[in-house]
Amino acid sequence: MGERYNIHSQLEHLQSKYIGTGHADTTKYEWLTNQHRDSFASYIGHHDLLNFFAISENEAKARIKFNLMEKMFQPCGPPPEKPED
């Protein structure tokens, strides 16, 4: 029983420390937004991927980086309206 509590407290600690890990109240929209932002940040950080995108789209690397940064603002569109309680 002690191990179960320990694992649960570790999970809560990770969820409070890192936004992308989610929590019990994370919506599908928030989860997908975090996934897209993590992907875009990874693309920007890995220069070989950035070079690949630039060559495949026939654009400058700076333009690709700019477009990815713009997509990070609202990667899944505007947030859905929350029902009022």
Question: What is the 3D form?
Answer: flat
Radius of gyration: 18 Å
* Largest sheet entry: none
Distance N to C terminus: 37 Å
Structural class: mainly alpha
Low-confidence stretches: none
The number of helical elements comes to 4
Mean pLDDT: 86
Q: How do the SSEs run, as a string of H and E?
A: HHHH
- Fraction of residues in β-strands: under 5%
> Quick one: how many beta strands?
0
State the helicity in percent bands.
55-70%
Structure description:
With 85 residues, the chain is mainly alpha-helical. It has helices at 2-17, 28-45, 47-57, 61-71. The longest helix has 18 residues, at 28-45. The N and C termini lie far apart (37 Å). The mean pLDDT is 86.
Short description:
The protein has 85 residues and is an all-alpha fold. Helices cover 66% and strands 0% of the residues. It has four helices and no strands.
Which helices and strands, and how do they pair?
Blueprint: H1 2-17, H2 28-45, H3 47-57, H4 61-71
Helix pairs in contact: 2-4, 3-4
List keywords for this structure.
85 residues, mainly alpha, 4 helices
